[in-house]
Amino acid sequence: MRYTLLICAAPQSGEAANSAYRFAKAALASGHSIERLFFYGEGAHNASRLTVMPQDEPNLPTRWDALIREHRLESTACVSSAIRRGVVDATESARHELDAVSCYDSSEIGGLGQKLAESYYKLGERNPSVLAASPVVRGMSMLLTKSTKPGIRSFAHAQHAQHFSSYRSPRVVLEGFRAASSGSVFDYMDGLSGELMLIAGEKDIVAPVQKTKELSALLPNSQLEVISKVGHLTHYETPAEVATIVTGFLRG
User: Fold this and answer.
1) Dihedrals φ, ψ of 91, to 5°?
2) Among the CATH numbers 3.30.200.40, 3.30.70.1520, 3.40.630.30, 3.40.1260.10, which is that of 2-110?
3) What percent of the chain has pLDDT over 70?
């Protein structure tokens, strides 16, 4: 079997992270494969090479690093989770003018949603039925929807079930994803002129708000509005607020 593991617990916060490590090690020893490891939230501490544990406790970050290297696993620490916890790679250290690197180089710092989507579509290439599987579509919808209001969550899930569970051909969605993920707006900044409005969700894991702030700083003709307590689905979760922002921008 192929697994993707999401680790949300810090190495020093109990047995959760240690259990995830033991599961990963046992799965690999049994001949299974791990598509990717994701360190999210407090779990980002597992990618830190500065963690020091008491002598009578296992140093989980060191063990994760060794396991990742031994099996050449793909490992990602969520960029927003990592940075706010002081876990930075060389790129983020330079960007924020820091004088140290604290992330093991066996793991990369990146957007969690993007990496999850990549793993999702890789599975879809091998087994197209995965793309339309109801549990998978619901799982992605639950991950992206941040609202705690039952009505909004139900609406978002229904929209995803309707529009992401049926494709004329798996090739269409695979090609669409490849086109969308092969670059970013940073690649086209030179062609952006006039006044620009950027809208970001505070809890967006697909396009982390930190990256949107960096983009805004590079575009002097831009305005940035960050909507709190919402993720990637601002158009589903806060449509009235998005409409107000856009209307105000257009009216000047």
Assistant:
1) -65, -50
2) 3.40.1260.10
3) 87
Q: Any catalytic annotation for residue 8?
A: no
Q: Phi first, then psi: what are they for 96, rounded to 5°?
A: -100, 10
The catalytic position among 34, 37, 78, 209 is 78
Q: Name the average pLDDT for the chain.
A: 86
Amino acid 234: pLDDT: 95
Fold of 191-251: Rossmann fold (3.40.50)
Report the C-alpha gap between 88 and 6 in whole angstroms.
19
Number of H helices, E strands in the chain: 11, 6
Contact present, 11 and 60 (Cβ < 8 Å)? yes
- Say how far apart CA 100 and CA 62 lie, in whole Å: 18
Cβ atoms within 10 Å, residue 205: 24
Give the C-alpha separation, 185 to 200, whole Å: 14
Domain ranges (residues) in the chain: 2-110, 113-181, 191-251
Beta carbons of 245 and 225 less than 8 angstroms apart:
yes
Reference 67, options 107, 111, 13, 103; nearest CA is 107
Instruction: Take residue 26 and report the two structure tokens written for it.
Output: 């046992």
